[in-house]
Description:
With 393 residues, the protein is of the alpha/beta class. It is built from twelve helices and 19 strands. It folds into two domains: 3-132 and 158-229, Spore Coat Polysaccharide Biosynthesis Protein SpsA, Chain A (Alpha-Beta Complex), CATH 3.90.550; 237-392, CATH 3.30.1330.50.
Amino acid sequence: xxxxxxxxxxxxxxxxxAGLPKQLLLLGGRTILQRSIDAFVSSSRVDEIVVVVTxxxxxxPPPYLRSRTKPxxxxxxxxxxxxxxxxxxxxxxxxxxxxxxxxxARPFVSAALIERMIDAGLEAGAAIPALRARxxxxxxxxxxxxxxxxxxxxxxxxxxxxxxxxxxRPQVLREAIRLGRAGVDVTDEASLAERAGxxxxxxxxxxxxxxxxxxxxxxxxxxxxxxxxxxxxxxxTRIGAGYDIHRLxxxxxxxxxxxxxxxxxxxxxxxxxxxxxxxxxxxxxxxxGAGDIGQLFPDTDARWKGASSLELLxxxxxxxxxxxxxxxxxxxxxxxxxxxxxxFVGEITSKLAAALEVPAGHVSVKGKTHEGLxxxxxxxxxxxxxxxxxxxx
Length: 393
Ligand code: MG
């Protein structure tokens, strides 16, 4: 038994407006295409995958299309979707028992759905996943969206909404493709199989198996990722901790969270010695696994002498962003016997929020005394603790 999956990702659909084909947009740390490929790579029933991509992607395939646990063939697609599937089918060998055709724009295809389609395809020769229509279904006519009228109301129970993956015996798909070459334009292979006279079995689809086409779909897809992976998935949410302490000395300004606070003493250090910014920077870098402030901005480097630590925090944020993260929120505690921090907290949080590129409500700074205990309690130093939550984008 040999089963091949053809993943159609040759479209240039840029309706999502990101300037990239939609299948190359990131969704929770993986591209939409990668999520689709991963589903077939992890299916124990699928032996090989043929991915049909744009010529640009085919010329330089990303790593997830190269080294995998099963063979992946990358080919450049055609103009219409059906041309791409035909090209993908040509890339399969003769000894194939079943071909499963999937739209890369459906990144949430589940292992269970793939199994169902394979079983039904083997049994019936052609099978499609579909959902019942829950809304009332009407046939309409008219020149465009603004001038259409209802021509009739369809019986809802006779209508289904069709998804992929669609499964075909190779001889069925071969005939369908031949029809497509003859000039019939369709949006799925099953339409061609029907026209070629084959019975196509309808199998229960999956409501989560949405097609990501519009910006609203992308929002929905992000919500699904957040719901299913956001809370529990270590790959999509990361936490980091940071701590710092600096000695209070005469003759230096006291800078905390980028704000100069009137006080007779200031913190001693190579930069402006802003212990709060340093703790937050370490929390942000730590969450991304991107090292720490000492590695990034060593105090042996003259560039950082007297540097604004708020600016260094901004650089750290840019770095983690380039690694695919965004800051979610930050919570910090400043431990200082004096001065009282409360009057400056608003200004501090708004400066930090700007550097972290988050809304002000996503930054919290709390002042604490050390109850007169130890060096901080004696007013010899100020310390800060911080935690930062990052999300993959
Ligand atoms: Mg420091």
